[in-house]
Each structure stands twice: as C-alpha cells, then as structure tokens.
Design a protein that fits this description.
The complex is a heterodimer of chains A (281) and B (445).
Chain A (H helix, E strand, L loop, with lengths): L2 H29 L2 E4 L2 E4 L3 H8 L1 H31 L5 H11 L6 H11 L16 H26 L3 H9 L4 H12 L1 H17 L2 H6 L9 H11 L3 H37 L6
Antiparallel strand pairs in A: 1-2
Chain B lengths: L1 H4 L10 H19 L1 H4 L8 E6 L4 H17 L4 E6 L2 H11 L9 E5 L2 H8 L12 H5 L7 E3 L2 E11 L2 E5 H6 L8 H11 L5 E3 L7 H15 L1 H8 L14 H9 L18 H9 L3 E6 L3 H10 L7 E5 L9 E11 L6 H11 L2 H9 L3 E2 L11 H11 L3 E3 L2 H4 L2 H15 L5 H19 L1
Parallel strand pairs in B: 1-2, 1-3, 7-8, 10-12
Antiparallel strand pairs in B: 3-10, 4-5, 5-10, 5-11, 6-8, 6-9
Classes of the chains: A mainly alpha (281), B alpha/beta (445).
Chain lengths: 281, 445
C-alpha cells in the first residue's frame, strides 16, 4: 500500500482518537490545574493534587476500588477459570451450561444493579442487609462476579482450546493427575490469557461506575473513585477537583496495569521454569 | 545556446493510482457533504419551547399538559416540548446540564435559593421584568419572587413545607393518641405505636435528603436562622452544643422509632428510598411518615386509584425545649434561559401556568401556591391544614440542598444519617463537620 493509502486508512481512526480521547484528556489535565474565577482562568498548579492526597473521601474511594479489584479477581477471574476447566470437555450438557453461565454478561450493569438492589433491600428484599456497611463491597463483588465470570470463562475456554492435545496426552502418559496437569501444563501455557484476564479485571475494577452508582449512590461504604469524581464534578460543582481525581485515576490505572503486567510476566517466567522437565545436570 | 537545445519538460499526467486516491477522497468529501444534515448535532427547533421540569405524578402532569395545550392553541405555530426528569436526578445533575449543548431548555423548573443565585451568576437566567407588568407581579407574595438587583428572574409556583409528619388517623385513634404538642410527647407516641409487627414511623433515607431536611429544621429551631447560615457557610465552628438540635435524631436511633421487630430491621432507614417509605405508609404498614407537603399529590393519586384504605392526618414537627419556631420551606418556580429564542412567549407560557385556574388545580393536590389569593383556592381539609401550618409564625429555614452549596448540604445530610444510624454521637459529628469544612474551603478557594 502506498504512503498516501496508509494515511487515508489511518486518518479516520486518528481523527476519532483526537476528538474523543486526546482532546478531552488534555482538557481534563488542563482543568485540573486551572480554576475559573468570575469567568477568568487562574493557575492553581498542583494544589488540588495535594488536596486529593489528604482527602479522606478520596482515600476511602481508592481503598474501596482496590478491595473491589481483589474480590473481583476471585469472583470473576478465578471463578471464570474454574468454570472453564469444569466445562472444558465438548459435551452437549457442557455447551448448555456455557451458554447459561455466559448469559448474565450480556446484561446491562444498570439492570443488574437495579434487580440485585431490590433483592438485597431491607424490609422488602428477599435477602435484606447484604448491601449494608461491612458487607457492601463483598456483595457488589459477588454481583459483579455473577455478571462477569461467564465472560472470563469464555476467554479461558479459548485459551484451553489452544493447548495442543499431544502435550496433554504426554502428561497423562507420564502419570500426571488433573491438578498436576493444570498446574504444570495448562496454567503455564495459559499464561498470556491469564495476563489478559487479570488486566481486564484490573481496569474493569477501577473504571467501574454503573453498578456502584445504582446500588450505593451517596453511601460512603460504596463510594469508588469514579462515583466520587462524578459527584465532585457534576453534583458539587467542582470541575477542577473532579478533573484532578480523573487524572489521578488515569495514572493509577495506567501505572497499575504496567506494574501488573511486569508482575505477571515475572510469575509466568517462574512457573515456566518450574514446569520445565529436569534434564541432565 | 545549450538552453535552446534543451527539450521541454514532459507534461506529467497523474498516475492511475493517484487518480484513484483523489477519487476516493472526493467521494468521501461528497458523501460527507450530502450527509451533513444527518451528521450535524441536533439543535433546538426554532418553533418550539423546551420546558424542563420534574413533575412526575399523574395529577400534576395532567395540569401541565392542559396548560401546554391551551398555550399551543393560543400560539399557533409554536409548540411546547416537555422534558421531564426524576426530581432527584434533576436536582443533582439535570438542572446544570440543561445549559450545555445545542438543545438547551427555554423554560425550566427550579428552586429559589442557591440554584437561582448560581443561575443568575452564570448568566443562565433571563431578566423577566421587561415582559411583566406591575399587575402581573402583584399576583404573587413578594418574598417568593426571585430578585437579582432590580431584575426579576424567577416566578414562583409553590411554597413547599419540607418537614411534615403524615399519620394514620385510625392508628392514632385506636391507641388513643392525639397530635403531639412537644417532642417528648412525640417520642412517647412513637414508643407506644412501636411493637411486634407494628411500625411507629417509616422513612426512606437512602438518599439522605429526607432526614437531612428534617435535621435542618431542628437546627434552625435550636440555632436560629442567622447562626445556621454561619454554620453552613463555614464561619461558625461546630461543637456538640452547636449541634444539640439534632438530639432528636439520636433519640430516634436509640428508641428504634423507624424499625420494628418482624417488619423492619434496625438500620433499614438507611437502605430504603423515599419511594419505598411512601409505599409502606400508603399501604398501611406504618403509623407515621415524615415528608414534605408534596406528599399530598401522592395521597391524591393513591385515593384516585382506590389504594388508600385510611384517612391520613398531618402535623408539623412538634417543638422541643428552648427552641425558636422555625419551618423548613422551599419556594419552587421557574426561570427562563437567557439564550431562549422566544423570551416573550416563554414568559407568556409561565403567566398562563401560574394563573389562577391552573394554580387552583395544583392547590387541590396540596401545592401551596405562592399567589396572594391562594387561601381562597380550596376547601379540602389537607391543603387547608397545610396553609394553617404555613401561616404559623416561624422563621423560614431553607432546605440545605436548595439554600446552600451542594457539597455542604450533602455533608450535613450525611451527618444526620450517621446520627440516625447511631454511627456518630454529637461530639464526633461536630469534629467530622469541622474537618470536612477545611477540605471544602480548599476546593472552593
């Protein structure tokens, strides 16, 4: 393809990226260091960043995000993996179950939130008290797991399908049990898929909004950074502080993703080394 | 010489590939040109008035629909588009967002206080005085008009009492109780009404504002309006004594007035919404329900649908010891967007909506009209009782979410909720308030 052709193909994507990502991101960064007073912009520097670092509400929201991520790692990624391993064999019954487990992931989180919110409501719900303080994050993670474990199951099923049958056959002939096969063969070979799963879970946990907004709205025990910044920006009329929290959230997610990738690569390398057959000294 | 012998440069024809590239570019440009109307952002149509409000009950919507129909009939070629928001969504976000984008509102519902002040500061509200005569203005109680210097930018629809206690008259009669005249008596009533399977009072404070407004009235009574203003503006540091007015919330929490064995578990007040509480009261599951005067419309709807099986009564929050009388009330009404293309027509629409025939119908639903002739509107017992409560001499305390900055209001509401759920005592509440004031002041600086 000619240079001009390449540019032609590239231009629409670049335009969309520019208008919907780059410009708003730049504007958010600018808004976080500028305050508008009487219609005039005024440079405030990193004042709001230092405020965020001392704001207990922000600390609480970030802490809630982190806890939510850890729980969803269990209820989405690990449960997804267990489901994938359980339904790996191509039987008719397993195919039905796969569809059933995947079905909730096509639902809107707002709908999921409304339904579960009613289920857990005190006084009128079937399981009252589950959303009260203390249980809030665990419950919302369970709901999230119910809705998303099927999605991770599909990812892991795709990974499992890519493992060569002869490798598994060789393991069986060597007398490896199911647990050993999983730990020594499947998990190392699924390394990249697990990386992707954990990354999707991590970014999902930090950009979560809808479920928390519907279920908790103003409650501090269910406040995460995304809901806090929306409240600051729109409800409290602090666009500069809302923008500051957005920038911090962006940095946390990007930095956390990079860190998670490094960590998972390191774990993957260790797993691969352990799973390699010992040959001659 | 050599230049004469040079052969002229060959004419370079564009290659076929280049022609094809330009052809593609030209086709895309043409396609965009022809589709420009579909691709362009929608904008307000010139022959329409966008009317944004949050009247969601069937009875209120019927009145507005009739006013819109009458206006359209008298203004051929001009129609009114209603944009109806859920009240809470509108109050929190919707009212601010309507001033952005190419399809802005022309006429919008609002609350007199912080929001009207902000609308005039931001230049969102139109000065209505050029379109209003002295006679027009004389129809309303003067204090309910929104004034910005010598301009008038707000016309009042109603005065809402934020805190009333609605009760089931049959339950009161069965327990030989009358309307309480003091907070101590009220607490005793609640104790008597509470029992296994019997809920003394129901409230849905999930969104904090119902009991937050309740708390504001208690604070207005104990501190007085001037000191309450100082507190909300961050100029008066809080101490346990400053918040003593909120002791009633602590007493409610201690007594379990909002829960009952077998009906609602302790703390349920924090997870129920105001709608849940309304439904529980109207379906006869609780003896009392504290909420504002707008509840009259719900009672009417329930009656019309034959869903109400008891006679509700209403009283104001009874006075506590050493308190000055105060009532939490909010004036609701309308503003016109300064960017409207139809300023004259917008004001004419408001004049029609605020005229006696429509206001009489609103009054029948329990709306306390801001018109001077409101007392002659109705003979129904509940609206008349509300007018009687409104007429009692008392300072008018604005509900925090309409009178003060949204964040300070939200903080106060949170505080009331924490007291009610027994999470904080008055001393802890005071120090939490002071700590948060410092952070808010930094954001507002």
């Amino acid at each position: 393809m000619s240079r001009r052709g390449q540019i032609l193909f590239f231009a629409p994507a670049m335009l969309i990226f520019l208008v919907f990502v780059l410009l708003p991101t730049t504007q958010t960064c600018v808004d976080s260091v500028i305050a508008w007073r009487n219609g005039k912009p005024e440079w405030i520097g990193l004042d709001l960043y230092t405020l965020a670092l001392t704001d207990p509400k922000f600390h609480n929201a970030l802490h809630n995000n982190l806890i939510y991520f850890l729980w969803t790692l269990v209820f989405e990624v690990m449960v997804g993996m267990v489901l994938a391993l359980g339904l790996e064999r191509q039987t008719r019954w397993n195919q039905v179950l796969r569809v059933l487990f995947f079905a909730p992931s096509v639902l809107s989180m707002v709908v999921v939130g409304l339904v579960f919110g009613f289920l857990f409501k005190d006084g009128v719900g079937l399981l009252p008290g589950w959303l009260n303080e203390g249980n809030a994050l665990l419950t919302v993670s369970l709901i999230s797991g119910w809705a998303s474990a099927g999605f991770f199951m599909v990812i892991f099923l795709g990974g499992l399908a890519g493992i060569p049958e002869d490798v598994l056959e060789a393991a069986r002939l060597d007398g490896a049990g199911a647990w050993q096969t999983f730990l020594r063969i499947k998990l190392p070979l699924l390394r990249e898929v697990v990386f992707v799963g954990v990354l999707v879970c991590f970014t999902g946990a930090f950009k979560a909004f809808d479920l928390f907004w519907v279920l908790f709205r103003n409650q501090e025990e269910g406040t995460i950074v995304a809901t806090l910044l929306v409240r600051e920006f729109f409800q409290f009329g602090h666009p500069a502080y809302g923008s500051t929290l957005s920038v911090i959230l962006g940095v946390v997610v990007t930095g956390g993703s990079l860190l998670a990738m490094r960590l998972l690569q390191w774990i993957g390398t260790r797993l691969r080394r352990r799973s390699l057959p010992r040959t001659l000294p | 010489m050599s230049s004469l012998n040079r052969t002229p440069p060959a004419v370079r024809f564009p290659s076929r590939r280049r022609l094809r590239s330009w052809g593609v570019v030209a086709s895309v440009a043409l396609a965009l040109w022809f589709a420009r109307d579909r691709l362009s952002l929608s904008s307000a149509r010139p022959n329409r008035l966008r009317f944004v409000h949050s009247f969601t009950t069937a009875s209120e919507k019927a009145i507005i629909d009739d006013a819109v129909a009458a206006f359209e009939q008298s203004h051929p070629g001009l129609s009114v588009d209603q944009v109806v928001f859920n009240s809470e969504t509108y109050q929190n976000i919707g009212w601010r967002l309507q001033f952005q984008g190419s399809r802005q509102s022309d006429v919008f519902f609002t609350w007199l206080g912080f929001k009207t002040r902000q609308a005039s500061e931001q230049g969102w509200s139109l000065d209505l005085s050029p379109h209003l005569s002295e006679q027009d203005l004389a129809q309303f109680v003067p204090t309910t008009l929104g004034r910005n210097g010598d301009k008038i930018d707000f016309l009042p629809q109603s005065v809402d009492l934020s805190n009333l206690v609605w009760y089931n008259q049959q339950w009161f009669r069965t327990n030989a109780l009358s309307e309480p005249t003091s907070q101590a008596e009220w607490l005793a009533h609640c104790e008597k009404l509470r029992g296994p399977g019997s809920l003394a009072m129901v409230q849905g404070n999930r969104e904090y504002w119902p009991m937050g407004n309740f708390g504001a009235e208690l604070m207005g009574r104990s501190l007085g309006l001037a000191r309450l203003n100082e507190l909300f503006l961050g100029r008066l540091p809080a101490r346990a004594e400053t918040l003593a007015g909120l002791q009633l919330l602590v007493d409610f929490a201690r007594q379990g007035s909002f829960d009952a064995p077998g009906v609602l578990a302790p703390g349920s007040i924090g997870s129920l919404s105001d709608l849940d509480a309304k439904v529980l009261f109207l379906s006869g599951k609780a003896a009392q329900h504290p909420i504002g005067s707008w509840f009259t419309a719900d009672i009417r709807d329930a009656r019309d649908h034959h869903e109400l099986r008891f006679d509700p009564g209403v009283f104001g929050i009874p006075p506590g010891p050493n308190e000055t009388p105060a009532r939490t009330a909010v004036v609701t009404g309308y503003q016109v967007n300064s960017r409207t293309r139809h300023p004259r027509e917008a004001v004419e629409f408001l004049k029609l909506l605020l005229s006696r025939p429509y206001q009489e119908r609103f009054a029948a639903l329990g709306n306390l009209s801001a018109r001077r002739d409101a007392t002659t509107f109705t003979t129904e017992p509940i609206p008349r009782r509300l007018l009687q409560i409104l007429a009692e001499p008392a300072a008018m305390v604005p509900p925090p979410d309409t009178g003060y900055s949204p964040e300070r209001a939200a903080l106060f509401y949170e505080l009331c909720s924490d007291l009610l759920l027994g999470k904080l005592d008055l001393t802890q509440a005071a120090s939490h308030w002071n700590r948060q004031q410092v952070l808010i002041a930094r954001k507002e600086r």
